[in-house]
Structure formats: C-alpha cells, structure tokens
Amino acid sequence: MTTLRLRGGRVVDPVHGIDGVRGDVGVRDGRIVALDEREPVDQDIDAAGCIVMAGGIDLHSHIAGGKMTLVRLLMPGECSCCAPGTLATGCRYAEMGYTAAFEPAMAASNARQAHLEMGDIPIIDHGAYVMLGNDELFLRMLSEGAEAQELRDYVGWVVHATKALGVKVVNPAGISAFKFNQRRLDVDERHVHWQVTPRQVVRALAQALHELGLAHPLHIHASNLGVAGNIESTLATIAALDGLPGHLTHVQFHSYGAEGPHKFSSAALRLAEAVNTHPNVSIDVGQILFGQTVTASADTMRQHAIAGLGSPRKWVGADIECDAGCGIVPFRYRESSYVNALQWTIGLELFLSITDPWRVVLTTDHPNGAPFTSYPHLMRLLMDKPFRDEQLAKLHPDVVAQSALREMKRELTLYEIAILTRAAPARLLGLADRGQLGVGAAADIAVYREQRDAEAMFSTPAWVLKDGVPVVRDGRVVATPVGAVHYAEPAFDAGIERRIAARTDRPLGLHPRHAAIGRDELCRCCNGGRLLPAECFARSG
Amino acid sequence: MTEAIAAYAAWTCPFCSLLCDGYGLSDATSLSLEGSDCPRARAALDLHRDRSPDATPRIDGTPASLADAIVAAAQRMDRWRQPLFGGLGVDIHGARALYRLAVRTRAICDAADGAALMHGLRALQDRGQYQTTLGEIASRADLLVCVGTPAVEHYPEFFRRCGLGAAGSPCTGLVFLGVPAPARLPAGVHAQALPGSGDLYADVQQLAALVARRRVPGADPALAALAGRLHEARYAVLVWEAGALPAHGALLVEALGRIVATLNGTTRAATFPLGGSDGASSVNQVFAWLSGLPLRSRAGPLGAEHEPLRFGADRLLADGAVDGLLWISSFDATRTPPPVDLPRIVLGPAAMASRLQEAGGIFVPVATPGINAGGHLLRTDGTVVVPLSAVRDDGLPGVDVVLQGLADALESRT
Predict the structure, then answer these.
(1) Cβ–Cβ under 8 Å, residues B325 and B84
(2) What are the pLDDT digits (tens) for B115-150?
(3) What is the rounded CA–CA span in Å between residue B17 and residue B117?
(4) Is B2 on the interface with A (CB under 8 A)?
(5) B82 — contact with chain A (CB < 8 Å)?
(6) In terms of domains, do B126 and B260 share one?
(7) A16 occurs within a structural domain
(8) How many structural domains compose chain B?
(9) What share of chain B is helix, strand, coil (3-state, %, to 5)?
(10) Which residue in chain A has the smallest CA separation from B21?
(11) Is residue B39 in some structural domain?
C-alpha cells in the first residue's frame, strides 16, 4: 500500500464543481482517497502555488495504426512532432499533463496493429474507435434493407472483434464510393454501387450504437471535409441524426462557407448555433496552428482531391480490405495564406461561440491541424484575448479585416479548460473514474505551477501522476509504466457471425477464426497493460 | 467463428508474407500441408519436420545452458563499439525486444533482405505511393499487371489469394510485363505476356508516358495497347516484387507510382507490393512505429540516424565498419550469417546449428513463430497483422525472451 498527498494546491475539478479551492488531494494505491490531514504518507508533495487538475484526456488524436506508421515511413525524421514514434508520443503527452489519448480511426482490418502500436505508447491509457460505414459488408446490408437489429448486431460484433471503445464513420460511404471512382458524395447523394446515402449510413450507425449502449456516441467525420461551402452538409449530417447522440469531430474542417471574394468564408457561427440548439450533439474542434504537419485520414476521396496542395509534394493513398482507406498528405499551414488563416480563425470562433463547454473537446486532430504538442499554445490563445489579437494581426489581411474573432472578448477560464480537456472528454467516453478528482477516481493527476502565461504553465507541469505513480517531475519524464486499454463490451446476438459468414469468407480481411481479437491476445498486443472493459447497457430502439 | 480447432488443422503459414491462413497441416508431427501445394511452404516445413536436432545453446562450440549463453553473449556484446544486427527474421514481438536492445547497444539494424526492402521504402520516402490490398484485389481488380515478376515463383499462392479463377472474380485481364507468364496459374485463368524490350526501366518509363498520353515516337504497340487497357479498366493493379527488382529498383517503383497517379485522375488504380517476407516488413514497421524511423537506422551518439544506403549490412561488413554481428533468423534455418571474420551471436532454429560454417561465437536455438511459438506478422500489403499459433511445443525460447534476457544482462553490467 502506498500513499501520497498533494498538499495545498488550488484544485480545479469541474465534475464536482470545484473551481480553484485550496486543499489537499490524497492518493492510496492509485486511487484518490480522503486522507486525514494528520495521516502520515509515503510521499508528501508541496503543491502550494500550483493548480491541481485531473490528467488530460485527448479524445481524438491519431497516435497509432498502420496509417500513422505510413506517416513515419513517408517522413522519416522530417517532422518529429507531427509523426513521433510511439515511445515519444507517450512521453510528450505525459509531459503536458495528459494521461490518456484515443486513436479515432482504427480500420477494422488493421485493429491488431493499432493495439500493438498503442501498447507501445508508454505511460498513458489508450483506446480506439473502429471505423464503420465504408465497409462493404455494412453498406451491402444497408442496401439490402437489413433490419435495424441485424445492423446493430453487426456493429456490436465489430466492436467486440476489434476491441474498440467506440465507432467512427469517416465521409459516410464516401471512402467506398471513391473505390468505385465516385469523386464526391453529398449527404443525400447515392453511392454509385450500393445506392445508399450518407444520411442513411449516419442514421443507421447512430441508431445501432444507441441501442448497443456504447457510452461514446457515433464519432462522425462528416462528408465534404475541407470543401468550401461544406457547412450545408455538416448541418445536414446533424439533421440526419434525428436527435440521436452524435459527436462531430474536427468540425473546424467542416465549417466553411462559400462567400466573399475568395469563395471561402467562415461558417463557424452557423455551426455553433446548430450545436447550441442540438443538445444531442458534441464536437471536437480540430484547431489548425501554423507550421509543418501532415494530414492523415481514412478519407481517400478528400485526400486524393487535395494531394496537389501538399508540402512537401508527396503523398500516400491506400484502399484497404473492402473496409477502409488511408490518405496521407504533408501540409504546411502558413499565416500568409488566406485559406489557412481563415481556418485558424474558424477553429477559435467555434471554441469561443459554443456555449456549453461540456459538449466541446479541445483537439487539433493531431497531426492534421497541428501536432498535439501545441495544445499549451492553443490553451493560451483561448485564455488570453490580447495574445490572441496579437497572433490574429500577423495573418492574411483579408482575414484580419473580416473575422468575427476580433469582436469575441471571451477568455476561457481554467475551469473551462479543465472541462474541455478533462471532464468533457471523460464524460463523452463514459470514463466515469477519469477526468475528475473525486474520492474513488483514478489518481491521474496533473499539477501545474500557476502563472499568467498559460502556454508556459501547461507546457511544464510540476508533477504528473499516472494511477498514483509520479511519471513527470518539472516537465521531465521520471517513470514509464505501461498504460491501460479501454474498450467496450456490447451485448449482441452471436448469430450474427453466421450471417456474416454467409456474406464473406474473410471478415475483416482474415480467416474467420482470426477475425476477433481475444482478451489474452489483446493483453499481449498491449504489452501486458491493464484491460479496462466498459460494460454497455443496451437501450431499446 | 470461435469454435476450437487444433492448431495444426487451422494453421497460418509464416513462411512468406502472404501469411496464408486457409490451409492446414495434417498433424503436429509430419507437418504435411493440406489444402495447398505451395512449394515454398512445403520446403520450409521440411526443414522443421525433424525435431531431433540438438537444441542446446553453444558458446564457441561448447554446449551451455541458456542462462550461461545469454550472460556470455551480453559480455561480448558489451565490448562491441558498433554492432550490426542482421538477418532480423523475427515476428512483431521479437522486433519489439530487438529495438530495445538496439537502442541500448546503438546497433545498426538491417534485414537479410534489406536491399530489396529499401526499393519500396526509398520510393515511398521520395514520392509516396498508392497501394491496395489482397481483399480489394479480389473484390474489384479487373486488370492485374505483374511488372518484372511472375509473382508466383516466390509467392506461389498469390493469384489464388487474389481470387483469380474463383467464381465471381472481377479480374478479366492478367498481364506479365518483362517476364514470361508462369506455368503456375489457377485453372481457367489466361494470361498475356509482354516481353518488352529487355530493359524493364525503359519499358516502364515508356508505359508511364503512354498512360500520361504523351507523344512517344516509335512506341511499342504492345505497351500502347496496355496503356489503353489500363485507362479502360475500372480498377487496375500494378504488382511488383521487391526481391525481383534490379539495382536502383526504387526508380521502377516510382515510375509505377506515377502510372497509378495518372490513372487515378480519371479511373481507379493502385500498386501492390510483394515482399517483406521472413519478418522484414514486420520489423521495419515496428521500428518505425516505436522510434519514427525504419530499418537502416541507429540510436547514434548524436541522436537517431537513418541512412537507407550507408547503413546497408553488406556495405558495413565490406567496409569493416562494424565490430560485432547479432544475426537472427527464427523462420529459416538455412539463412545463416554471412561468412565474415567478426565476433558473432546467432539466434536461429535448432536445425541451423549444423549449418553454421564455423563453430566460433555463440549460438542460441530459438522457437519459430507459427511452428513452435505464437506470434504476429504483418502481411505483404502492410495492412493486416496476422496472428500465428504454435502447432507444437519444443521447449525452445522465443526470440523476444532471449533478447529481453540479453538486454537485462546488459543492464545488470552497468
């Protein structure tokens, strides 16, 4: 039994409504406990002058899987921040006070590799959302008019087989459509082969997840990513949910109008209004920040379309196992570019104009908008209006002149940052004992020296604890335990395996006996890290 | 999909990067292949049939315990100033352990087929690629063009895995460019062979120009017709084999990439690589995901270095640039270390012992993933990681266990 006390810090814990109250946080055997102030502890840490928060949780960061290793192979040593190895990934996250990150685009046929790579990310916990809605099996079932129950069981089986925590749909039906040489697919446009629409795909998947009882709603990379005027398809995607829960991801890339002299404008306020009036919708932003990065997406249709804009000029594409796709385009976001500058303002406008912070998560869609290591900079942009204005003034003059950002006076508080980076992602993922500092919670804790410069503060925590073990001291990693893997365990009718077998002899690209990853195999893939299955409570349709 | 089947009956073949999992073995003793007549698998299984080879580690020819062999290996390795880790015939778990040891010793790592591996890797680093997978080919490829390779010579089950000859296969065209059509084709599949000029570089460049609809004076009519078929195809796939490419093969791979890029402007196409067997692509990917850098890298005194040419094993050995060799070949007992005058530590199947030309150095017999150990390997298309199961237990340690022991022994020396 080991005990530890963080003494005299200002605690920020939105789950319990605690906003900067000075106090102690006790830890025993990896869990937060109420310790009597006289009780002796194994380690007593002076947190005076510090902010104490739960460890950060990144709910959307491309950290593992074949796609990210292709990025590493494409750009060896060319961009260490945007394509770090797994060992560096874990260390860099921990050095910012983050204790969990989730891979949002696991191809079902590549699930083992994703888990192997995540298992090689030290310190932080992890998990992944499996991609559906472009797999030929689902599209075929939908096209053949399969019952909602059969679709639900299929989704449940794929989550089970791949040991996923959630389900993501990327350009619904569009990745598959590109394999049939379709170059765009609007929300109500039909897939040229399967004759289904993105609206049908989104609705069916959202319904299936709702009934299976997964905590995380359908994670949606909407149609028409990056296209001027795509706000219409983004709003249509929200409508397609019919009130069912949905998480729209990297919405910055989906909030574009087609107005003005450049036929490219901000539609951030329209999206914010839609989010504010649809309580079933949550989002993460996918903020862009300036500099070299690489865009990595399953959306081959859109990545192929922008490949010519890449810098440096090389790109990778792949059609994957009748299941998914992969497109990698290196990118340099420039302040002098009208489009890039506008993207920067759109992201910040979204952060500042959505009223309910519990439905917003801070992300850069690592590495697509910027490397995750730029989070402290992004936090300062959100918390410091004069700093934000200073950065805005450096941008393309047409953007500076028209941006709604100039008039936005809101500065996020530490409390709100703690929601966006801890409490909200934990709630949206159903991680009841993470993202908070209540008694019984996991002792994933970040301790930051309080200072005016939020970027400096969030860059170098004084202490980071992972399950009660100090892993970072003064911004430097001091221990590298193996992280745990979160995954969902939905109930489904096992008869679906027979119905899958009737349609394909190689589910998920493998012999049927290998299609599902067992617990022992998952444990080996994850380097012996703890398995954290999440029970799902089925809901009626 | 979950019923229990004996490991030998539900076997997955680890002996080429197709990782076929649809065939079985008759039993765990005779290891007779069932459901396939793949000569590559049969030849490899022949080498593993005999369970009698002496499975004792040896230090300079003298039998030793595993623990003693590991301690002795650590002592010797600790003296090496610039080790080379070669062969690298390991599965993903072996590769994980190997990386940690490589960082600890600052070793340079290169696979036995490193030169072939680099063709694709250098093309990828310079230009990128657009690839497809076995399942996609079986589902939608209507034209398959094998460039400079008969494909089935080294990957005998390739066409079967592509679904050629099966009912419902969309493939209506199979073309071999620069090589004769192989005899081994699925029943009912007809192929066309285009001999070309004898200079594969020139032919592929000409094909690229024709596909891009540039004017090519004196164009080969057969290549012009092929360019037309590629444009007409709904989903054309250009197959290349890393091990069959000549020197500077990266240029060929780049040209194939250009053809595919042109075609993707109006129709759909992709390349498909055959290669990375014997653990090569698995260890390459593992190193890339762990460190951000692929093989032919090292954790040098000035940080991580990647040198796709300078860190080639052959060049390092020829230049005398390394002073110790750790050679690992856990799948193939015939793949012995190159005959160089260097201190060496060898990890291989027990049957390798009698094939080592000199008795010097340390030899540790290890298990073979897919025969007498479990494991994971990455398929040739770089997408699917396939689990391997042991069909028998010979009491041999896995490569990962030996390497971990070696790393621990080195740690305890500091």
Answers:
(1) yes
(2) 999 999 999 999 999 999 999 999 999 999 999 999
(3) 13
(4) yes
(5) no
(6) yes
(7) yes
(8) 2
(9) 35, 20, 45
(10) A511
(11) no
